[in-house]
User: Which sequence fits this backbone?
């Protein structure tokens, strides 16, 4: 009886055996054999080059017209900044270009800014998302300095540098002298319209200060319908960016002449920024972008080259794996 | 400092000394939070993170929500605080249980039941059989008429045998009822932690006795946490209570040990910190320059014309915050988790369970497993560590006649049996000394068989052997001792016991034969302490030769001697002995001095030889570990010849011609230094030869060498791979460890007894063998194992894996932090050097805490080589020892990898998400996803064995990443609202991910393949061998495994000066020399 007790005690003292505790879980232990590595590289090449071609052709199919107008739409004086800041000057500017290839609808109209730091630390933080959604939170402007409140302490809605510097160039397009309708509905993200910019918040005290930044807002239209503002407030991570201006819901034929009447209001001259008008179609990879296709081709090509080199090395300079004679202590018993 | 305890005085005492409340707690409820936080913030890393977190509260400079640092910081602090709190709570519970245990004490002359915590100094405590002793007591009375009681001290010193304790002679014969009213004073030292000493005096007040002072020793005490056994009741007066008991004083918080890996990680962290500061300064200056040159032109940013005074600091501080993630906040938590798992693996390992006793291995220190893989020196005790410490009486030499030489076992030697049965006087006297001269307690079981409880294994062996030769120790009640020789009983009265100490190396008893009334002194001890004490006429040569001969067989020898005393001679001495025993100051040496007076003119009866067998698997273990490049030093208290013999038989030193023994000896400073220089010269010369050179040194020479020729000795220590140090004391053992540590070697000390504790605590890693000498060593140690042979597995399997895993884990932690930090830095160049964060708060926080820490944590299950392969090729440990897997150059590799990957992610993201797709949140999320994908593949490429957990963690983590982001994306108030859904719908997102992975991993794979195939490391070769199933040529291993045909019982080395060089036996020629010209002797060898 007592011996029975003793033995059971001993067993319980012993650690329980399991494959986990003994570190003996079944494991797959791959090693880098030539076949495996060369196989992986070859497969990579074989898969990547077609994808690259596909992406390139998709990018090739995108028809894109880019027209830089900031340098043309201004009198060639030294007083560019003065001209653009003066509200009295006539800033209308007319540009024409031809469509190189047929553009299927929808055709997107973008404006592109170069050298514009929407990602600047001071800029990107200067907004109040609470204020945009909650009508009662119009005073939550603490993050918006220096465009939080007017001089006499009234809250600015929408506050902050981002909203204040709203892009305000306008474009009107015409094809063969017939006005081309630009649809400015649904250019912003749907989630912004439904969850970020409230239908109950109206612009207030906006651009009323002494310092006028960019565009003004109609105080009778709720924020949820101010789609230009929404697009603008989706800040860009890169100093060169395009933002959607509108969509053209008709096909544009090749060689058609497009005339654009531009109101050149926005000041990019003080910091040498460029402004471009972009008309483009889109495919499954988005707009025109050769980068992905080229990278795929490059990576695929490199891995095939590597695969071939490795195969040649394997054939001409074979080296048996795991040859115990490579172990130095097998050659010389006194390992030091 | 002394303390005075007044027995049974209710008015006094309680205020002066603490009550018996035991408290092992570190904290109280009130001081927990401040104290714990203070402790945590005393570490540099934590201070750094706190500073960063505080800086983040300043909204002007914080790039992200402060939550990204506060969240993980609070989590980490909460985890370690709650761990501390839980430990402390458990300590509180066990304290409470001990404190509230009910005990009987005497108050106002009445026995009362109170809680243990209310015991005051001077209270009389009553204990019954099997009660735990609640505080340190001085015995006053027991149920035994002779005033003895038995205690089990396992909780105190780990020794499982019963110890006898006796009441002081002053209390002898006091009636039980009177005991309750006893009054008196005890003068005792202030509380200390020496559990083997209690030098005190007691005086009883009238009416009990006159003013005589009685000495008290540890024998008169029963200490806290002991158990009363085999005694109906006992009572004693409390002298030390609460945390001031001997046990309480022994409790100490061990200094945390820092592993080499930890030190390296700290160094790398420091380097990264410097790098970070440089980056911050450069970017800060660049940012301010850009602001003045370009920033002021950006009208939409509205830089004020005049900034506040700190304006110049704003941008550098922003970058400091952006770059603060360079030092991964998660590394400490990851490493702690990994380390506790390593420790658990050691605890769980069924292959390290001693099958005989069921004792399993235990990692008491969970923080130093990596160091096991980096051990360079092992310092080992001999007895009980290499040997079984299971003593068996094998041979003896009685009055010049050798017994047991033919059969190898004296107990079956017909000559001896014959001598016993014919009643040869010498033999019977020899047996009597064997049976009487000891502290063994015979315990008679119900069935009538006698078993012996002994402190010393040697004594038990002797008593058992005597019993086999019909000299049976039957009873020991108090001072009366019954032995039975061939059914004729004899009774002796033990008058005094002259105890064994490690300095005296002998013990004696003074007994009176009850029949004749004659008094004898019976002694036993080591030869060098007994042989010089003989009376002038006796020839000791035969005994010296016997000792020599036995020692060369690896047997332990004890000389037995006796001396007849005259009555008055004894009485005179006894009073001196009593006086010495009651001194308070330096009692031990006084007693030793008095003992010396009696232990003279001995007549040597004979020499007993006791065998201590090698533990199973010791030679193989040592051979394997030596192949792994670990150097062994044997530190033993034993004789030189015994030590050398054991060293030979367990592969410690190789037999000639492969090995060579160099002996450092000498009695004076000059001799030792000369000898040391010679040895050093030989070692230098033979260094180039493939030859094992070992030096042998004894404690005396070691002391001199250590004091006077330290430099030479240190050099020798570095050169020599093997050393045997004999006759060394515990403090010398610790000194040697210290010496090797000063030379920057990782040392592991292994031992089993109390004399190894200092060495174990001193070494980088202390391993204790839970053996027969008690648990003292195992308790002080970082690891405790059941048998020496488990050391092989502990080091080669657990140590090696731990090191490899930690090396990967820590470097990977830096890799992933650097990766995301580099991307932030690149982004700052396209965001006007203004310190904008590329990633949002949620991503940054979750990146360190979830996305990247889970996959890497399963690397604690990774095994680069199977255990079998490592055991077959222990040389592979070299990679760990020399730190090949974690050092500045491997770290530079990871640094480069993170830079390359950051470039890949950043360039591909910003180019494929350009123009109309360049929305901030989206681009940030694409880059983050790129990092997550890349790091999954990096972990996969670095993983050697994929178990189900690896797959789950690596690929499951990717799924988890998307799940978390989908959840966050569905919260409308978060900045990330809908981002992840939008991205997942875009084909360009997925092809960007594939592109990032392929671009990032292809070069890594190609490089790794080239290295793996054309410049493989030894680990790679073994991996290939193991996994491709290549069978190794067997010739090498078979020749290696062929054990050198060693027979332990052949003399190898003589200590006699005439035989300076002697090679013995064809199988194991062993070259050793003591003094002649060394270069010569290395080349001249005798071949038989």
Assistant:
């Amino acid at each position: 009886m007592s011996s029975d007790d003793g033995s059971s005690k001993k067993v319980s003292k012993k650690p329980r055996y399991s494959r986990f505790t003994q570190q003996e879980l079944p494991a797959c232990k791959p090693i880098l054999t030539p076949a495996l590595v060369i196989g992986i590289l070859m497969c990579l090449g074989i898969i990547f080059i077609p994808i690259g071609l596909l992406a390139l052709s998709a990018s090739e199919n995108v028809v894109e017209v880019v027209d830089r107008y900031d340098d043309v739409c201004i009198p060639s004086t030294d007083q560019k900044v003065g001209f653009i800041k003066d509200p009295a000057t006539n800033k209308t500017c007319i540009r024409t270009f031809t469509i190189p290839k047929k553009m299927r609808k929808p055709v997107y109209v973008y404006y592109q800014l170069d050298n514009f730091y929407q990602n600047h630390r001071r800029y990107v933080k200067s907004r109040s998302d609470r204020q945009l959604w909650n009508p009662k939170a119009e005073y939550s402007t603490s993050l918006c300095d220096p465009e939080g409140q007017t001089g006499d302490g009234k809250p600015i809605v929408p506050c902050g540098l981002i909203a204040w510097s709203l892009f305000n160039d306008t474009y009107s397009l015409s094809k063969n002298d017939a006005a081309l309708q630009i649809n400015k509905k649904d250019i912003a993200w749907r989630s912004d319209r439904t969850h970020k910019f409230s239908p109950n918040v109206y612009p207030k005290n906006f651009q009323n200060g002494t310092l006028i930044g960019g565009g003004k807002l109609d105080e009778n239209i709720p924020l949820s319908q101010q789609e230009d503002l929404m697009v603008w407030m989706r800040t860009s991570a890169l100093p060169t960016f395009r933002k959607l201006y509108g969509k053209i819901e008709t096909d544009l034929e090749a060689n058609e002449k497009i005339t654009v009447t531009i109101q050149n209001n926005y000041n990019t001259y003080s910091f040498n920024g460029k402004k471009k008008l972009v008309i483009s179609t889109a495919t499954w990879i988005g707009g025109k972008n050769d980068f992905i296709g080229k990278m795929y081709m490059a990576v695929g090509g490199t891995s095939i080259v590597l695969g071939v080199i490795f195969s040649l090395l394997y054939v001409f300079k074979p080296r048996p794996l795991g040859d115990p004679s490579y172990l130095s202590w097998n050659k010389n018993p006194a390992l030091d | 400092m002394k303390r005075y305890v007044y027995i049974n005085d209710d008015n006094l005492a309680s205020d002066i000394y603490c009550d018996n409340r035991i408290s092992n707690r570190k904290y109280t409820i009130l001081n927990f939070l401040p104290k714990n936080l203070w402790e945590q913030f005393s570490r540099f890393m934590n201070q750094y993170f706190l500073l960063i977190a505080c800086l983040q509260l300043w909204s002007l400079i914080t790039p992200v929500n402060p939550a990204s640092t506060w969240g993980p910081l609070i989590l980490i602090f909460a985890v370690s605080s709650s761990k501390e709190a839980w430990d402390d709570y458990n300590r509180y519970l066990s304290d409470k249980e001990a404190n509230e245990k009910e005990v009987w004490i005497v108050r106002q002359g009445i026995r009362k039941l109170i809680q243990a915590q209310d015991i005051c100094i001077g209270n009389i405590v009553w204990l019954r059989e099997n009660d735990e002793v609640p505080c340190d007591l001085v015995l006053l009375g027991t149920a035994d008429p002779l005033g003895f009681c038995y205690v089990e001290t396992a909780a105190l010193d780990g020794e499982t045998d019963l110890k006898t304790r006796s009441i002081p002679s002053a209390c002898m014969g006091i009636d039980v009822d009177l005991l309750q009213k006893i009054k008196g004073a005890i003068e005792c030292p202030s509380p200390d932690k020496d559990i083997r000493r209690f030098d005190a005096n007691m005086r009883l007040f009238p009416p009990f006795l006159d003013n005589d002072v009685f000495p008290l020793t540890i024998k008169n005490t029963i200490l806290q946490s002991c158990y009363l056994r085999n005694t109906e009741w006992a009572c004693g007066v409390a002298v030390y209570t609460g945390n001031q008991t001997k046990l309480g004083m022994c409790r100490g918080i061990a200094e945390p040990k820092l592993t080499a890996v930890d030190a390296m990680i700290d160094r790398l962290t420091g380097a990264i910190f410097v790098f970070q500061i440089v980056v911050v300064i450069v970017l800060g200056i660049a940012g301010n320059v850009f602001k003045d040159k370009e920033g002021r032109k950006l009208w939409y940013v509205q830089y004020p014309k005049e900034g506040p005074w700190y304006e110049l600091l704003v941008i550098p501080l922003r970058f400091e915050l952006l770059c603060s993630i360079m030092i991964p906040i998660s590394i400490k938590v990851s490493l702690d988790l990994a380390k506790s798992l390593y420790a658990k693996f050691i605890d769980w390992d069924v292959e390290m369970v001693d099958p005989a006793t069921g004792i399993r291995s235990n990692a008491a220190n969970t923080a130093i497993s990596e160091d096991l893989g980096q051990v360079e020196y092992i310092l080992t005790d001999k007895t009980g560590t290499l040997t079984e410490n299971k003593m068996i009486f094998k041979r003896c030499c009685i009055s010049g006649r050798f017994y047991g030489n033919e059969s190898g076992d004296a107990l079956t030697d017909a000559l001896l049996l014959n001598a016993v049965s014919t009643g040869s006087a010498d033999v019977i006297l020899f047996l009597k000394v064997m049976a009487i001269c000891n502290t063994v307690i015979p315990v008679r079981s119900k069935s009538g068989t006698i078993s012996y409880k002994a402190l010393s294994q040697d004594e038990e062996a002797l008593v058992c052997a005597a019993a086999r030769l019909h000299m049976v120790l039957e009873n020991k009640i108090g001072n009366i001792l019954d032995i039975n020789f061939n059914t004729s009983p004899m009774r002796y009265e033990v008058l005094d016991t002259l105890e064994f100490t490690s300095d005296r190396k002998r013990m004696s008893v003074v007994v009176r034969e009850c029949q004749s009334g004659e008094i004898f002194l019976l002694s036993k001890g080591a030869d060098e302490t007994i042989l010089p004490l003989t009376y002038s006429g006796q020839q000791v040569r035969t005994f010296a030769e016997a000792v020599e001969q036995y020692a060369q067989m690896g047997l332990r020898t004890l000389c037995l001697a006796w001396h007849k005393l005259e009555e008055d001679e004894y009485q005179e001495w006894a009073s001196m002995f009593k006086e010495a025993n009651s001194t308070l100051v330096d009692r031990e040496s006084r007693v030793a001095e008095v003992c010396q007076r009696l232990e003279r003119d001995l007549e040597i009866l004979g020499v007993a030889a006791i065998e201590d067998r090698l533990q199973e698997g010791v030679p193989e273990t040592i051979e394997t570990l030596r192949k792994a490049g670990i150097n062994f030093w044997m530190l033993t208290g034993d004789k030189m010849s015994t030590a050398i013999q054991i060293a030979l038989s367990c592969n410690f030193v190789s037999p000639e011609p492969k090995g060579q023994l160099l002996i450092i000896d000498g009695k004076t400073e000059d001799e030792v230094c000369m000898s040391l220089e010679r040895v050093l010269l030989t070692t230098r010369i033979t260094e180039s030869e493939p030859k094992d050179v070992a030096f042998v040194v004894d404690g005396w020479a070691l002391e001199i060498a250590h004091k006077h020729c330290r430099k030479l000795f240190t050099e020798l220590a570095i050169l020599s791979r093997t050393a045997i140090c004999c006759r060394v004391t515990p403090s010398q053992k610790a000194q040697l460890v210290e010496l090797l540590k000063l030379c920057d070697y990782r040392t592991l000390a292994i031992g089993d007894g109390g004399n190894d504790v200092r060495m174990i605590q001193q070494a980088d890693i202390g391993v204790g063998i839970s053996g027969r000498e008690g648990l003292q060593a195992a308790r002080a140690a970082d690891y405790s194992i059941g048998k020496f042979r488990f050391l092989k597995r502990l080091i080669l399997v657990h140590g090696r894996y731990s090191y490899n895993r930690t090396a990967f884990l820590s470097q990977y932690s830096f890799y992933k932090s650097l990766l995301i930090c580099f991307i932030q830095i690149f982004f700052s160049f396209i965001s006007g050097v203004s310190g904008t964060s590329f990633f949002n708060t949620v991503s940054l926080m979750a990146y360190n805490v979830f996305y990247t820490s889970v996959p890497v944590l399963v690397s604690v299950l990774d095994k680069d080589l199977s255990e079998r392969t490592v055991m077959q090729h222990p040389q592979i440990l070299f990679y760990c020892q020399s730190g090949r897997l974690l050092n500045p150059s491997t770290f530079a590799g990871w640094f480069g990898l993170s830079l390359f990957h950051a470039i890949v992610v950043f360039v591909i993201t910003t180019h494929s998400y350009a123009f109309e797709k360049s929305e901030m949140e989206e681009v940030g999320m694409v880059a983050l996803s790129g990092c997550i994908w890349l790091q999954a593949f990096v972990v996969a490429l670095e993983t050697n064995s994929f178990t189900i957990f690896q797959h789950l963690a690596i690929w499951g983590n990717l799924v988890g990443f998307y799940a978390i982001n989908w959840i966050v994306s569905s919260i409308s108030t978060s900045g990330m609202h809908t981002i992840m859904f939008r991205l997942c719908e875009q084909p360009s997102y997925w092809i960007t991910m594939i592109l990032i992975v392929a671009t990032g991993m292809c070069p890594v794979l190609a490089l790794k393949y080239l290295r793996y195939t054309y410049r493989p490391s030894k680990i790679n070769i073994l991996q290939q061998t193991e996994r491709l199933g290549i069978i190794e040529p067997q010739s090498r291993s078979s020749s290696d495994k062929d054990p050198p045909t060693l027979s332990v019982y052949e003399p190898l080395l003589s200590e006699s000066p005439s035989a300076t060089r002697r090679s013995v036996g064809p199988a194991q020629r062993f070259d050793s020399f003591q003094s002649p010209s060394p270069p010569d002797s290395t080349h001249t060898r005798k071949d038989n």
User: Anything to note?
Assistant: The longest strand of chain A covers residues 107-114. Strands of chain A lie at 64-68, 92-98, 107-114, 170-175, 178-180, 241-248, 257-263, 274-280. The radius of gyration of chain A is 32 Å.
